[in-house]
Write a structure and sequence with these properties.
Pfam family, one: Gly_transf_sug
Structural class: alpha/beta
Strand content: 5-15%
Organism: Arthrobotrys flagrans
Keywords: Membrane, Transmembrane, Transmembrane helix
CATH topology of the largest domain: Spore Coat Polysaccharide Biosynthesis Protein SpsA, Chain A
Bound molecules: 2-acetamido-2-deoxy-beta-D-glucopyranose
CATH class of the largest domain: Alpha Beta
Region (Disordered): 17-39
Distance between the termini: 93 Å
Number of domains: 2
Family: Belongs to the glycosyltransferase 32 family.
Length: 403
């Protein structure tokens, strides 16, 4: 009997007695009773029920595997460049694996991610706190004036546990090369060769925030309250929001949705492109945030397209006017990138009016938005108060227009 069974198994389970209906011979003696359609169908192809169940479970497991596939693509040294790009500098260098100081958990070359991917990336980032590091940049280690030196002391004094790093033109280039040349040589190329240095300076803050995280702030800012207290204070009494779930903090610098106070003419003459604007002279983020990845990709693609549209196709001939600078690497593109991310992560269109007139922090996805007075007090518009509730003050120097 045992050997019969074995043979039957090898021959095929359909002839194995244990899979047969109890009395198959008897069934032929009387007319087949009318059966429900599924069992007719099953008996027709003679699939035993157990096999159907096993098959179904296999298919189910396969789909569960597919569902988790994006999370498994946790590969080091992925590039920002969308696949299929064919820039002159994009793929001409050999891509070797490096050990950057931070490996973003999910970096995919595609620009758009599904909401599920964004949420799982945000969840991944929220496992770690904000790095305790302050970044500033200046041409050399000699700050422009005593005032800047005094302001810098406020960052040290109020944040004694934070590491501080001032990147000079020289060390910033090293930073960019060390962190990006292996994976994104085109970024390094842009950073090195853009003739208008404001573009490189803008790019640099996104690269720092993306790769290292922590706080980036322009050299003309002054700290008013310890950085570690910002998120809690801004969240205030917001219900159901966990401090750890915030992965990036974005400050508003323009909130002029109220047309009765701010006419279209006012907005136009003040040189803004929208009535809500997020500032990019300070960025507080955890490393690897999707907003920064998108921003860097988007800046890179825009400049690449502009170079291609030039007759000389030379980066040395790229010249932007003030509006174009704001649009290419500055707050216009930054604002647009953030708004798009918020729509994607929340899963609906979040209108400008939802940011209007906020007095406390507002959270969309893993982004904490600060009202104007927190980072940008005393600007004389947007309902910004003065210093009392502010976390920092920006002493606008606008040095960039001169360079
Ligand atoms: C970047 O890396 C490539 C080799 O991968 C090298 O040829 C090039 O000189 C590097 N660029 C800089 C600025 O170091
Ligand atoms: C900047 O250049 C763009 C495109 O050439 C042009 O439309 C715009 O009026 C210019 N803006 C200023 C402020 O010169």
């Amino acid at each position: 009997m045992a050997t019969d069974l074995r043979r039957d198994i090898f021959r095929g389970i359909y002839t194995n007695p244990i899979y047969r209906t109890p009395h198959p011979e008897k069934d032929t003696s009387h007319k087949p009773t009318p059966q429900s359609p599924p069992s007719t169908w099953l008996s027709c192809i003679r699939l035993p029920r157990r096999q159907v169940i096993i098959g179904f479970l296999n298919v189910l497991l396969f789909f569960i595997f597919l569902w988790h596939l994006p999370l498994l693509r946790n590969l080091p040294a992925r590039s920002f460049l969308p696949s299929g790009g064919s820039g002159p500098y994009a793929y001409s260098f050999p891509h070797t694996a490096v050990q950057p100081d931070f490996l973003p958990s999910v970096i995919s070359p595609s620009t758009k991610k599904s909401r599920r991917q964004l949420l799982s990336l945000a969840k991944e980032l929220s496992k770690n706190p904000f790095p305790q590091k302050i970044w500033q940049t200046w041409k050399t280690i000699n700050l422009p004036d005593d005032e800047s030196f005094t302001r810098r002391q406020t960052w040290h004094a109020l944040n004694p546990t934070h590491e501080y790093e001032l990147l000079t033109d020289k060390s910033a280039l090293e930073y960019v090369i060390n962190n990006f040349n292996t994976t994104d040589p085109y970024i390094v190329y842009l950073y090195q060769h853009l003739p208008q240095r404001i573009l490189a300076a803008d790019l640099l803050r996104y690269l720092i925030a993306y790769k290292s995280g922590g706080l980036y702030s322009d050299i003309d800012t002054e700290c008013k309250r310890p950085i570690d207290t910002w998120v809690c204070q801004a969240l205030g009494n917001l219900p159901n929001i966990n401090k750890a779930d915030i992965n990036i903090v974005v400050g508003m610098e323009l909130d002029v949705m109220d047309k009765s106070k701010y006419s279209d003419k006012w907005v136009l003459e003040a040189g803004f492109s929208q009535r809500i604007q997020f500032l990019q002279w300070t960025i507080y983020s955890k490393p690897g945030h999707e907003i920064l990845r998108r921003m860097i990709t988007s800046v890179q693609e825009a400049i690449r397209a502009d170079i291609q549209s030039l007759e000389s196709k030379s980066i040395g001939d790229v010249k932007y006017n003030d509006t174009q600078v704001l649009d290419t690497t500055g707050p216009f593109r930054w604002t647009q990138t953030i708004l798009e991310y918020v729509n994607d992560v929340v899963g609906r269109k979040v209108g400008h009016e939802e940011f209007a007139g906020i007095k406390e922090g507002k959270v969309f996805g893993d982004v904490l938005f600060l009202p104007v007075n927190r980072w940008s007090p005393g600007v004389g518009h947007s309902g910004a108060g003065d210093d009392e509730t502010s976390f920092m003050v920006h002493h606008f120097k606008s040095t960039w227009r001169e360079s």
